Each structure stands twice: as structure tokens, then as C-alpha cells.
Amino acid sequence: MPSKQSAGHESLLERDLLLMLAFDRRVKSVLEQPFRLVYEFNGAQRRYTPDVQAFFADKGQEWCLVYEVKYRDDLRANWSQYKPRFKAAVAHCRANGWRFKLVTEHEIRGPQIANIQFLRRYQDLPEQELHRVALLQRLAIAGPTTPKALLAVTWSDPERRMAALCELWRLVAVGEIAVDLGMPLTMSSPIWKGD
């Protein structure tokens, strides 16, 4: 299986899909324009290259999704042109034990991508070991809580809470603290110990 890498993109929507895949810990590798299909349409041979192929692994299961990224207006306007290539892609994916997935701005844009864009800035920050240990120990004792409550029960001093806030978001960004990325991320969002 190819290694996880930062793939390129042809549109902002495709960029956002790649960002979501890069943030998904189940994704083991991503390929941009992974293969070219030849299919027949109206008596002529045509070529089609899907946008992205992602290989996943989680809890002993492995699977592959092949993505085509389109804006909904483009799909509506050009469906008759796209339908034969997507049909060829579905058949190719089935033959290889993969799934073909057509995604639009409705599946990509929303709270998840906004949360990922927010958390990205914390992902590569240096670890603040003392804050990390204190936050994770308190979270283990408290159980599911919120960022605001976790900081409050860990430090009574507001300045210490503010100093630890970056480390809290870094822990969320790297998965040591879990959150539902499908909901808007706030200081009142439910959080719990990550995997």
C-alpha cells in the first residue's frame, strides 16, 4: 500500500477533501489521480481519471475509496457527460474490491472542514509536557467533559488556563483528546479521551 502523502489538488473543493483525508487517522495513504480508465461511450473510446484514491485501515479492517469531486451545479449541468465515466469507475472499483464515491460541496463543506482548518494550526506545535500530562490526567479522572470545564477543573488560575489552551487544542488536533468534528467546535463541545 502506498504511504500517506500530501496529494495535490485541482480545485478548492478537492483541496478540502484532501485536508479532511489528511486529518482522518484511519487513512493510511492518499493518491492523486490514481489511475486512468478507458471506457466506451457513443461508439468511441474515452478516458477518465478519478480525482483521489484513499486507503483506510481501522480495527483490523482495510478498505479503499475512490473519490470524484464535483460541484453540484457542475454535476447538474453535465450529468449526461459524466454518467458513463462514473459508471465505468463504479465497475472498475467493484472489480478491485473498492468503492467509488462522488462527493460535492454538500459532503465536504460544513463544520468538519471548518474545525479541521481551525485545528491545523495547533497540530504541529511543540508539546507542552506539563500541560499535556495535567490535562490528560484530569480528563481520565473526569471522563467526558468540555474544553472549558476541563481547563477549569485542572487550573483555578485563569492565566494558567489560558496558557494551557493551546496544548488542549493541540491534543485534540493530534487525537489524544477526541471530539465530534461534525459539530461546530467551541469551548462547550463534548470532549473525551482519544484512541
* Class from helix and strand fractions: alpha+beta
Total separate domains? 2
User: What amount of the residues lies in strands?
Assistant: 15-25%
The largest beta-sheet arranges its strands as 1-4-5-6
Element-by-element helix/strand order: HEEEEEHEHHHHHEE
Given the C-alpha coordinates, what overall shape results? elongated
Helix percent band = 40-55%
CATH names the topology of the largest domain as Trna Endonuclease, Chain: A, domain 1
Distance from first to last alpha carbon: 23 Å
Taking the sheet with the most strands, its summary is:
4 strands, mixed
Radius of gyration, Cα only, in angstroms?
A: 21 Å
**Count of alpha and pi helical runs:** 7
Just give the CATH class of the largest domain. Alpha Beta
| Strand segment count | 8
Poorly predicted tracts of residues = 1-7
Mean pLDDT: 93
CATH architecture of the largest domain: 3-Layer(aba) Sandwich
Protein name: TnsA endonuclease N-terminal domain-containing protein
GO molecular function: endonuclease activity
Domain TnsA endonuclease N-terminal: 24-105
Keywords: Endonuclease, Hydrolase, Nuclease
Could you list some keywords that capture this structure?
TnsA_N; Trna Endonuclease, Chain: A, domain 1; TnsA endonuclease N-terminal domain-containing protein; 47% helix; endonuclease; 195 residues; elongated; 2 domains; Arc Repressor Mutant, subunit A; 4-stranded mixed sheet; 8 strands; nuclease; alpha+beta; hydrolase
